[in-house]
Amino acid sequence: MASTLHLIVLNFFLSLIPIVEAKFAIPFTISRGLHPALAFLSSLLAGIFGAIILFLFLDFIHARLLKYSFYKRSFNYAIVLIRKKEARIKDKMN
User: Fold this and answer.
1) Which residue among 20, 40, 48, 68 is the one 20 to 30 A from 32 at the CA level?
2) Is the separation of the CB atoms in 26 and 11 below 8 Å?
3) What is the pTM of this model?
4) Three-class SS string for the chain?
5) In the chain, what are the domain boundaries?
6) Predicted confidence (pLDDT) per residue in 4-14, tens digit
7) Which residues, 6+ apart, have CB-to-CB distance to 70 below 8 Å?
8) Is the dihedral of CA 82, 87, 88, 92 positive or negative?
9) Average pLDDT, stretch 78-82?
């Protein structure tokens, strides 16, 4: 049986992958002997940590991704849709 600290760290890193968190990381570490509350808490902290890191580096990542035409086209398309919706909402309000 693995140590509790080892399981918490394993759960934390597995939980950094969003789809894996609820479907695999928590059940896997619980089946290895980690208390369910600790499994949930370490997964929650991993999610918070991942969100903070993403927001800190979002401008950097976005600037790098804009160099790729697929990302740039997709981003510009999304902006156009958002602006159209904004215009419709403003028209309804006036």
Assistant:
1) 48
2) yes
3) 0.66
4) CCCHHHHHHHHHHHHCCHHHHHHHHHHHHHHCCCCHHHHHHHHHHHHHHHHHHHHHHHHHHHHHHCCCHHHHHHHHHHHHHHHHHHHHHHHHHC
5) 4-93
6) 899 999 999 99
7) none
8) positive
9) 96
